[in-house]
Amino acid sequence: MLRFNILLVVIGGLAIATTIPKQGAEAQSGQALVFAEHACLDYGVTPGTAAFESCVERASRAFDRGEPDLAYMQARVTREARDACQSYGVDPETLGYRQCVATQVDRRTKR
After folding, report:
1. C-alpha distances in Å from residue 65, one per residue of 30, 44, 70, 95
2. I need a surface site. Which of 29, 35, 63, 101 has the fewest CB within 10 A?
3. pLDDT score, position 19
4. Is the distance from CB of 81 to CB of 49 less than 8 angstroms?
5. Per-position DSSP letters for 68-91, written without gaps between them
């Protein structure tokens, strides 16, 4: 019975370990994050907002890949998305706003 319990714990642990997403795979370098924050600030995206977090995430990935033009485009597109969502009257403190920004950014980058 003890072996059976240990086996279940091990199998359960392995199952959980394989289903948890790997956060380290999306890590950006410190330099890319600094450049991304500056790019987002230069385009007027307000720090501490969902739009800013999205902007920094997308721009830092582009900087890490060595694509600064794409990073600045992401910052510009995020500002435009933020402006669109605010014009719709979506409260910036809601999950709906975060989704609105993400949707707007996706629409503007998949042309």
Report:
1. 13, 23, 10, 29
2. 29
3. 53
4. no
5. HHHHHHHHHHHHHHHHHHHHTT--
